[in-house]
Amino acid sequence: xxxxxxxxxxxxxxxxxxxxxxxxxxxxxxxxxxxxxxxxxxxxxxxxxxxxxxxxxxxxxxxxxxxxxxxxxxxxxxxxxxxxxxxxxxxxxxxxxxxxxxxxxxxxxxxxxxxxxxxxxxxxxxxxxxxxxxxxxxxxxxxxxxxxxxxxxxxxxxxxxxxxxxxxxxxxxxxxxxxxxxxxxxxxxxxxxxxxxxxxxxxxxxxxxxxxxxxxxxxxxxxxxxxxxxxxxxxxxxxxxxxxxxxxxxxxxxxxxxxxxxxxxxxxxxxxxxxxxxxxxxxxxxxxxxxxxxxxxxxxxxxxxxxxxxxxxxxxxxxxxxxxxxxxxxxxxxxxxxxxxxxxxxxxxxxxxxxxxxxxxxxxxxxxxxxxxxxxxxxxxxxxxxxxxxx
Amino acid sequence: xxxxxxxxxxxxxxxxxxxxxxxxxxxxxxxxxxxxxxxxxxxxxxxxxxxxxxxxxxxxxxxxxxxxxxxxxxxxxxxxxxxxxxxxxxxxxxxxxxxxxxxxxxxxxxxxxxxxxxxxxxxxxxxxxxxxxxxxxxxxxxxxxxxxxxxxxxxxxxxxxxxxxxxxxxxxxxxxxxxxxxxxxxxxxxxxxxxxxxxxxxxxxxxxxxxxxxxxxxxxxxxxxxxxxxxxxxxxxxxxxxxxxxxxxxxxxxxxxxxxxxxxxxxxxxxxxxxxxxxxxxxxxxxxxxxxxxxxxxxxxxxxxxxxxxxxxxxx
Amino acid sequence: xxxxxxxxxxxxxxxxxxxxxxxxxxxxxxxxxxxxxxxxxxxxxxxxxxxxxxxxxxxxxxxxxxxxxxxxxxxxxxxxxxxxxxxxxxxxxxxxxxxxxxxxxxxxxxxxxxxxxxxxxxxxxxxxxxxxxxxxxxxxxxxxxxxxxxxxxxxxxxxxxxxxxxxxxxxxxxxxxxxxxxxxxxxxxxxxxxxxxxxxxxxxxxxxxxxxxxxxxxxxxxxxxxxxxxxxxxxxxxxxxxxxxxxxxxxxxxxxxxxx
Lengths: 391, 316, 260
Hints:
A: alpha/beta, B: about 325 residues, Rossmann fold, 8 helices
């Protein structure tokens, strides 16, 4: 590994206000980490090492950057923050270490490529921004243009816009909104990456550029409300952007609200046993657990099952935190496979998700294990769409 | 002594085409040590073969080769000098051009000399476009010819063989060729496989390789790859198909997520059946494939694998 | 040690459909994103690794018809110490030899131990400028380098040949090497590093005041016209959704006897 050696002054600045000196080394963060024992990642060790390192105690040898390189294995699920009894926030320490490594140029090449693509093309795939709204072709959706004033903006997100499978989430969402006669617009080719993964990968410079660009867009179109079908987009817009009065919603909140207001027509019975997988960025990061369940329970014919690990105890699918682009970290088995087995074990026919990353990762797991005939993975929007459509 | 490579014959074929069209003489030059028999072989492909046999040039060395060629060129005054577009060719041709102040164009597919104007056709943008290039009028033109694209035919008669002697070569101690390294023994030999499943940059990440492994296993093939996959160290070099890797001629070549730039195509274009999959409809791989699919391999491959499994399952 | 790295800014055409302009002699690139040529990226990374090991300075030199600020900032962010750029619209017309002459004029009075270039460029793939530059500077060169070691005023290189062969070539410094992809893993340049890179020295040389004569800037070759390659073989495109396409493929494989 290049750039070995002690942290420099600027790097110590990055770690300055973190709480590692509160750490008791109890190990609850490691025990709750989905990547612990599957891989080399150990939040407890990282906190300890960072503590020694920043206090520059001479008793301990200066460690090499290669020892902390496993920070790229973290899925940013938030478990370590939730279970820590002392407010150490190991995830923030991991983010600090990521920022340090990244500034030194030490990023796994596939992650570096995704970041460069976001910088150049506004999406991690490196596909032209002109193709961002191809999913919307023929659907007659209002797109923001000069002089528009948007009341409700549907922020689609990169994965949903470009990934063939995830595009169905957007189409379902649009169908639902139209069915409930909700007025909305999309940014179309002007939509840019929300920057959540950029933030959690430690690319602070790029994140600042993204926020600036996006806020300018929202202000330009005088947006009042934003709904996102991706909880990563929802998380960063709600918690890291300073959007003033703009209301930020995840689509499960919007749909739940429509149900409350009697604006949802469930015309089709859906006789299915459905288990809901709480996405980390919806549940663990933002404490939204009830709305998705309410939606599923409102659909006629649906039996809602609870997975063994649910709500705050939910199992991370393993796709967040840049893992979508990170080469095999040498896992013995992937967390998504465990999740899929849980769903099948309780007899679920549909595993409902509310995140395009979970969708992609869990579907891959279904295929890998060979459970295609046993379990279908669908976004809540797709499930609702099935129930409101005529066919 | 060494041996003559296919590249040599490719160039001689192009040379003969040009010579015939222009009623010109084609001369082959071979430089090396103890190369008499090779000179004999070459005589069936040219009007004359010049043989420079010297211990000093027993291996390729750009500086010595250039000196030899310069002396021959100044003496014989050829209008066109053809060199294969190979690693050696590119080590030699550009500096030769600078010394002669002669226009040079490289990696050329076609050449023609009509009405006193020398033109060449070559690819641009990795094969997405071609261009016709015009060379400025000059007593000499230098062209490096893309190899592997033509079939060579022997002449009926044998050309003249001339030994070049008494050349003075200045010592070039500032550059030394120390040794040649043969490729290491392999654990897998992709050149003998009937079915090859080749993967390119389109696979995105090493963690997606299991998908290719499954396809290869279910269809009974061997996995190969293009250059970017080796550069990223996702697969070992012994699986590389192309200019810097292996040349393969399987019955079936599945090119998955491979753009089809020439340095790869060179290694597989003589496969019996080529089926290519890429999300870019303009990918040059479709210029050599028999069947093409434009789409997302992550959508298509799992279904393809299942259908093949199903079909084979029914056979049992 | 002082290292010069020559870099080229090239269009990113992997996803693009290329449109030939009205004259037929050029491709429309106004809306195409540009980036550092991939081979040059490997060359720069090798230079930075040498600097980290032996100390010294890296100067990046680039010749381009269009703005190269982003490419230069990226190079400086990755570890180059200064950049020299020669930007002039007329450069779009120039061939390799002319570019080599411009580089030669810019570099000939500089002090350097090593010059690194990419083995070729992704847009036109001529693989000429590096060796031509070395010839004009009268320094030894090695092409297609995939590994190198410095030792006592010499550099020992591993050169890539065809079919998996390699050779070891040693040259005396100062020398020019053209670098092949895969020699190393290029590092990431963060946006903050690129911002800080603005502080580094960027020298802009005016082509017109470089005292290049008309014959210096005269091309040896010119593009007469661009052509869209015709498919030599008729490639049958299989259409439809994934289900339809895969069914067709299985049919074809079955018919040809590959699914026994």
